[in-house]
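Researcher: Quick test of sequence recovery. Tokens follow.
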């Protein structure tokens, strides 16, 4: 019987599939670290209170990339090139979601509208990340090899999501509410499509590495399409609601020193 636990266990047990999984994850986290670092350097003067929080967000993403690479090295494996069709971060950028890399490479300060775009994009993608890490922690949080890493990353993703809620609510109260809701909706509808495409591509690559029979591959594809249909109909709404988080000022202060995994 197919389940999230059995599927990930199969990926974890095979060197080639585990190497691809960690390589994809490390690449995405490292890209997120670079993006947040550039955004922190370009925050407009009117939003300078955000700088330490965005900086910490970027530091967390960099840390996650190092964690996934450390998991590879502990197993004696090297990263592999990430297939472009599995590159979630870059595919979102190409779909026009978030702030483009061309803009972030320049030196002109961002506008307040850019900050709204950044936080809205982050609120949607961090929802996905928090949910994925919660699932992995549920099944593998006590795993002797990857458990500690999963718990550390899940904690950070929850902080990132809380920070996005709090900052977007602050901006909404300052008069940006309609803009925020429009951008959130655009981001969410695009993200669920990109997530579907990336999921199909990742499963195709994993199936090739693990030699999955055609019925199993088709069943997984059907599950991915069913999830997309649900998210396209109603599931996207969970990505656009805003509520004051229980974790207030989750990204305040300096990032804690990373623990070895």
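Model:
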């Amino acid at each position: 019987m197919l389940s999230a636990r059995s599927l990930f266990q199969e990926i974890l047990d095979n060197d080639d599939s585990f190497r691809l999984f960690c390589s994809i994850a490390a690449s995405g986290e490292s890209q997120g670290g670079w993006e947040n670092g550039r955004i922190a350097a370009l925050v407009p003067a009117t939003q300078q209170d955000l700088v330490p929080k965005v900086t910490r967000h970027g530091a967390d993403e960099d840390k996650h990339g190092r964690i996934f690479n450390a998991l590879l090295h502990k197993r004696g494996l090297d990263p592999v090139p990430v297939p472009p069709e599995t590159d979630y971060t870059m595919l979102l950028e190409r779909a026009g979601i978030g702030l483009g890399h061309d803009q972030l490479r320049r030196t002109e300060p961002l506008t307040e509208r850019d900050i709204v775009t950044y936080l809205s994009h982050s609120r949607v993608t961090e929802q996905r990340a928090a949910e994925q890490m919660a699932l992995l922690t549920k099944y593998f949080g006590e795993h002797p090899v990857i458990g500690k890493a999963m718990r550390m990353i899940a904690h950070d993703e929850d902080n990132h999501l809380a920070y996005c809620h709090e900052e977007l609510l602050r901006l909404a109260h300052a008069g940006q509410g309609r803009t925020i809701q429009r951008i959130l909706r655009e981001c969410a509808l695009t993200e669920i499509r990109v997530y579907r495409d990336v999921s199909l591509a990742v499963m195709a690559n994993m199936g090739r590495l693990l030699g999955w029979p055609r019925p199993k591959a088709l069943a997984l594809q059907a599950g991915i399409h069913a999830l997309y249909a649900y998210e396209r109909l109603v599931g996207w709404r969970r990505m656009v609601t805003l509520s004051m988080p229980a974790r207030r000022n989750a990204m305040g202060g300096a990032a804690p020193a990373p623990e070895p995994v």
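The first helix runs from residue 4 to 13.
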